[in-house]
Automatic annotation (TrEMBL):
Lineage of source species: Bacteria, Bacillati, Bacillota, Bacilli, Lactobacillales
Descriptive protein name: YbbR-like protein
Signal peptide segment: none
Gene3D superfamilies given in the database record: 2.170.120.30, YbbR-like domain
Cross-referenced PANTHER family: CDAA REGULATORY PROTEIN CDAR (PTHR37804:SF1)
InterPro entries: c-di-AMP_regulator, YbbR
Domain of life the protein comes from: Bacteria
Pfam family, any one: YbbR
């Protein structure tokens, strides 16, 4: 059987074990260190089985009379010891297995809490799944809507236990929880396997990260543009005709603000106008933004007969 070491998430009971190598002097100061996030290396046949559990890190309490030794074991780059669970004779399903401290240097004591791990062993299976993008509604502010979501990958390969993989409802690409969609978003997002209730399932997803692009629109609608003539018309004219570069404009905002607006009126001062004239007018309305923000109004005088 091929032994493959795999750092995995484990759930532990509340026991404590102390392991100490022989040949240690018991005189002098005792140096201690607490090492967090120490992975468990699983010994099992990776070609046949898929192993999972629920806790990602273990804390190890070290003590000894040699300060340099303790410092070395505290550092992951110089550390000699590791934690292991032997699954070479494991049964299928969820069972309890002892956690062992391996290669602990002479003169160093290690306390781990707990001493056992609940581990689920399943027959290994693999399957392709389509990726489903997910944006929580709380990430879309009032007045905005998601117009499209694009992913760099459409499907991925998933490896899990045979029973677990049958429970996978979807592979979700979740927009990071700290993102508020007040503008378009582009970035890398992690994938996760979920069941029909949205619970995350243990699985190896390849690739595990994809690029997501979310295009955002504000709520909007088109409204007609009206021209109001102001000022005094020249006495030689019978009327002044108007035309606008855009007969409709698009307004953006919250739904309550959009509902209040059915049209927008812009003003054109006709004082002193005797011949055709083009003027620029600003388009605005309360509680919304408008595109275009300016329009060109053409004033065409009609002389009296």
């Amino acid at each position: 059987m091929t032994s493959v070491f795999f750092a995995i998430v484990l759930f532990f009971n509340a026991n404590v074990t102390a392991i100490r190598n022989d040949g240690v002097s018991t005189t002098g100061s005792v140096y201690t260190a607490t090492v967090t996030n120490v992975p468990i290396e699983m010994q099992y046949d990776n070609n046949k089985y898929f192993v999972s559990s629920t806790v990602s890190a273990v804390t190890v309490h070290l003590s000894g009379y040699n300060r340099l030794q303790i410092t070395n074991e505290e550092n992951s780059e110089t550390r000699n010891f590791y934690l292991s669970v032997d699954l070479s004779g494991a049964k299928m399903g969820t069972n309890v297995y002892p956690i062992r401290v391996e290669q602990l240097p002479s003169g160093v004591t290690a306390q781990i809490d707990p001493t056992y791990a609940d581990v689920t062993v399943e027959e290994k299976a693999s399957q392709d799944f389509e990726i489903i993008p997910k944006v929580d509604k709380t990430q879309i502010p009032a007045g905005f809507s998601v117009s499209s979501i694009d992913l760099s990958e459409q499907s991925v390969n998933v490896t899990a236990g045979k029973e677990s993989i049958s429970k996978i409802y979807a592979i979700e690409a979740d927009l990071p929880s700290d993102v508020l969609l007040t503008d378009n978003y582009t970035g890398k997002v992690s994938l996760r396997a979920v069941d029909s209730s949205g619970k995350t399932l243990p699985a190896i997803i390849n690739p595990s990260v994809v690029r997501m692009k979310v295009n955002v629109d504000k709520l909007s609608k088109y409204v007609p543009l009206n021209v109001k003539l102001t000022g005094t018309m020249d006495s030689s004219l019978s009327t002044i005709k108007t035309s606008v570069s855009s007969e409709k404009v698009k307004i953006y905002g919250q739904q309550t603000a959009l509902d209040k607006i059915t049209s927008i009126t812009v003003s054109a001062d006709i004082t002193g106008v005797r011949a055709e004239k083009k003027i620029e007018a600003t388009v605005s309305a309360d509680g919304v933004s408008v595109k275009p923000g300016t329009v060109e109004i053409t004033l065409s005088p009609v002389k009296k007969k």
